[in-house]
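Bit of a strange request maybe. I'm writing a small parser for structure token strings and I need a real example to test against, not something I typed by hand. Could someone generate the tokens for this chain?
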Amino acid sequence: DFRVYVLVTPATSDQTTLSQLGPAFVCREGLARFCTEPYEPPTLANAHRSAVHLTNTSVGRYSENFVVTQDVGAGLVGTKRALSAVVRLLVERRQLASP
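Reply from user aminoacidic:
Good idea to test on real output. This should exercise your parser:
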């Protein structure tokens, strides 16, 4: 689950079309969240195992595999990591083209 945060400002009263909406700002850092157990395609047999299918911290923190991220910038360990660190790690491992 990759989170990218965007602030969209409201249009002013003199802007009447979609192309005239206010500016949007993208945050320079995002958040990468991970399941606490390796993903498995959902089936009737594993549908109850929410830690396999959900990256939600409120759910994952009850898993015995939940890991609090100590260094969000490293991108290696933890259920919440800095998106830039995860992208850097994927590029280094040649699993993602350089942005």
